[in-house]
């Protein structure tokens, strides 16, 4: 049996200030995610942070893109903007990579796939905000790229609890193993040499 830590990465997606700020009880809702990050680190599983941000001037934003053209029109969400920095509750440690994407999927406009392939990663554990945004888009694209996938249901958040439930119970299981952060951590501890 191969060690999970040798070919797995934990993706922490869109846990940036401007997105996390939409939730009132950050400590409570981010606890499963924080526990998953700590478990990954203790099992030598790389933790990769993904954020959405744009260059000053928004050269990457097409007027045809409904969501992001509004951002370009009203400003904010640039690479240096406080809203695009990783939230302090889940702050990266030195040496942990932050990947900047330009669209909803973690792969769109980023070098994520190059990093994963160069590191021999073939299994992704997905976490993030929002379930119906970055998690859904990344899951679909990662499945098409033949990554094995796990989704930590309580380490993903969505403003609409019903959408979150439907995705976790009916959509994601077609392409990923869906489990809680606690179940994933327990599986890591069981397979520890």
From TrEMBL:
UniProt KW Hydrolase keyword: yes
Annotated signal sequence range: none
Superkingdom of this protein's organism: Bacteria
Span of domain Isochorismatase-like: 8-181
Gene Ontology molecular function: any one: hydrolase activity
Pfam families referenced in this protein's UniProt entry, alphabetically: Isochorismatase
InterPro entries in the record: Isochorismatase-like_dom, Isochorismatase-like_hydrls, Isochorismatase-like_sf
Record's keyword terms, sorted: Hydrolase
UniProt similarity note: Belongs to the isochorismatase family.
Name used for this protein in its record: Cysteine hydrolase
Classification lineage: Bacteria, Bacillati, Bacillota, Bacilli, Bacillales
């Amino acid at each position: 049996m191969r060690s999970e830590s040798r070919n797995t990465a934990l993706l922490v997606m869109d846990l940036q200030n401007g997105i996390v700020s939409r939730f009132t009880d950050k400590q409570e809702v981010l606890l499963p995610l924080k526990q998953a990050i700590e478990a990954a680190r203790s099992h030598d599983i790389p933790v990769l942070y993904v954020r959405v941000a744009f260059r000053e001037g928004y050269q990457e934003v097409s007027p045809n893109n409904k969501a992001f053209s509004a951002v370009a029109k009203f400003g904010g969400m640039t690479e240096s903007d406080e809203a695009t920095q990783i939230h302090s509750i889940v702050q990266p440690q030195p040496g942990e990579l932050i990947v900047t994407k330009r669209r909803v999927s973690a792969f769109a406009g980023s070098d994520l796939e190059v990093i994963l392939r160069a590191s021999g990663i073939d299994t992704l554990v997905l976490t993030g905000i929002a379930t119906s945004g970055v998690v859904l888009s990344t899951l679909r694209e990662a499945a098409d790229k033949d990554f094995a996938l796990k989704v930590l249901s309580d380490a993903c958040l969505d403003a609409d609890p019903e959408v979150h439930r439907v995705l976790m119970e009916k959509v994601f299981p077609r392409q990923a193993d869906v489990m809680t952060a606690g179940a994933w951590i327990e599986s890591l501890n069981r397979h520890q040499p």
